[in-house]
Amino acid sequence: MTRPAGTPPPSLRVQTVLYRTPPEAVDRFRQAVSAACALARRSGAIGSATLWIGDSSPAPLVGAGGESPVPVPTGAGAPEEVADGLDQVHYLHFGANLGSAGGHNRLFRDMTEDLVLVVNPDTYAAPRLVAELVAGLADPTVGVVEARQLPLEHPKAHDPETGDTSWASGSCFLARAQVVRAIGGFDARLFFLHGDDVDFSWRARLAGWRVVHRPTARIFHDKRLSDDGVILAGEGELEHSARVRVLLPWRYDRRDLALAALAALEAAPDELSRRVAAELRARIDAGDMPEAIDHDHVVAQFVRADYAEHRFSYADP
Q1: CB of 119 within 8 A of CB of 221?
Q2: Of 183, 185, 190, which is closest to residue 170 (Cα–Cα)?
Q3: How many CB atoms lie within 10 A of CB 17?
């Protein structure tokens, strides 16, 4: 990240949202993030670094819960790499399942840092993750930088020279705080779990910011393939992704695609798809659908069932 001579390095907030996440997985996540922050600090890429952990689980992992953040020790009693990389760790139990979008928005409320790293708790940061993501902001027109997920790369296409891409995965992206403030964070009303990152990215691009993929910023994301080469997903993920197939094109002024997707859900053989379709049909009848934006189709991409051109498929023979 280029800055004028004499300007201090940017401050960083890392934030993640838990839901029934095992404590040992949280510790592993935290240690890796802290090590990556420590390396970035030593190189001068960032100044202060703070980790905010939001929890949508029924019971709190730390303390008694409530709306006040609980500080987690980073000095005595904490692993050395945690104490070295992070100035503070805060934990906040929401008292309700806010989803990914709602949880991150709640954490955004207290943000005073220059940059924010939005990242899933089922990830493990490579040592140079933070430094590489910050380097991706060297061009002042870039507002969001996405990491490369391993071992299963996201197949979404990106320009090999500039890194420009349709959208950044919420599994791990770095954003300027001013981008978050300008677009109002995620749209938690529309997108509980899936599609929130696509919508965030497209609204950032509509506001004039570039979204780029940086392959040298690497993070392990715990995703698995089925025997058919399809990424395994739970019922909740399938439900929310089905909903997004209608909501995203409706918002981005492609009502034709939204209605075609709705008809496909209504005709699907599984009960989950038909249940989501009935809910969406009721919302349409009640006039409770989002107002259309991007009328000139500047940023939105709808390529078959995806929201960008893909470089490959894991199901390819």
Answers
A1: no
A2: 185
A3: 29
- Whether 234 shows a pLDDT value over 80: the answer reads no
Please write the tens of the pLDDT for every residue from 70-123. 666 543 334 444 457 999 999 999 999 999 999 999 999 989 999 999 999 999
* Domains recognised in the chain with CATH numbers: 12-221 (3.90.550.60), 233-306 (no CATH)
The DSSP call for residue 69 is P
Task: Measure the CA–CA gap between 80 and 72, rounded to whole angstroms.
Answer: 14
Taking the model in full, what pTM does it have? 0.92
The type of residue at 35 is A
Rama region for 185: left / alpha / beta (φ>0; ψ in -120 to 50; rest)? left
Name the DSSP letter for residue 208. T
Structure tokens at 98: 């806010």
The whole-angstrom separation of Cα 268 and Cα 279 is 15
Q: What is the edge-to-edge ordering of all strands in the sheet holding 123-125?
A: 70-72, 88-93, 49-55, 12-18, 115-119, 172-176, 142-150, 210-221, 123-125
Task: List the one residue out of 132, 118, 99, 114 whose CA is nearest residue 239.
Answer: 99
How do residues 243-283 score in pLDDT, each as one tens digit? Answer: 999 999 999 999 999 999 999 999 999 999 999 999 999 99
CA distance 282 to 83: 51
Say what angle helices 235-251 and 196-206 make with each other, to 10 degrees. Answer: 30
DSSP 7-36: PPPPPEEEEEEESS--HHHHHHHHHHHHHH
